[in-house]
Design brief:
- The chain contains three helices and ten strands.
- The chain is mainly beta.
- It has a domain of 104 residues: Jelly Rolls (Sandwich), CATH 2.60.120.10.
- The longest helix has 4 residues.
- The C terminus is likely disordered.
- InterPro entries: Bacilysin_H2HPP_isomerase, Cupin_2, RmlC-like_jellyroll, RmlC_Cupin_sf.
- This is Mannose-6-phosphate isomerase.
- Pfam families: Cupin_2.
- It comes from Phyllobacterium zundukense.
Length: 164
């Protein structure tokens, strides 16, 4: 391959790429796929993955946690996760005994490193928690852990020292 073709975006043998088929994809919000790994207490739906969009390195979708609900303790193997809060109030607990806590609201991003045991909690008694979730890989890894929940949020008014 000559130098002037090396960075042209062309694939081997200089066949033109069908950008219509292999270009930008828009996934309508009402067509997300709920057939993905689930954690009790939350509804995940896939928007961007290999099957739906041809993604190789990232996965994206939505998560809804019902008012007052919490997930079980879980982790996502070697995947990195980013959660963007669209609506509602998220309380995250993490650690071997879920002993650490932080809260996030609309517009906030949450980063969850690989293998971190965590629990997502909807801190609102009457509003659903709606988030966008992005992961660093295609495998929908969810390892549900047998850790006694640090907190049973139903009917408990509780604030950590950071968010008084």
């Amino acid at each position: 391959m000559s130098d002037d073709h090396q960075h042209s975006g062309a694939r081997e043998h200089d066949h033109p790429i069908d950008w219509r088929e292999h270009g930008v994809k828009v996934i309508p919000g009402d067509s997300l796929d709920p057939n993905t790994a689930q954690t009790p207490g939350m509804n995940r739906a896939a928007a961007i993955n290999r099957a739906r969009a041809g993604a190789e390195k990232i996965w994206a979708g939505t998560v809804v946690i019902h008012p007052n609900a919490k997930t079980g303790a879980h982790h996502h193997g070697d995947l990195e996760s980013i959660i963007y809060v669209v609506k509602g109030r998220a309380r995250m607990r993490w650690g071997e005994k879920l002993e650490y806590v932080a809260e996030a609201g609309p517009g906030d991003f949450i980063f969850v490193p690989p293998y971190v045991p965590h629990q997502e909690i909807n801190a609102s008694p009457d509003e659903a928690l709606e988030c966008v979730l992005v992961r660093s890989g295609q495998e929908p890894v969810v390892v549900n852990l047998d850790i006694e929940p640090a907190e049973k949020p139903e009917g408990v008014l509780w604030k950590d020292p950071i968010h008084r």
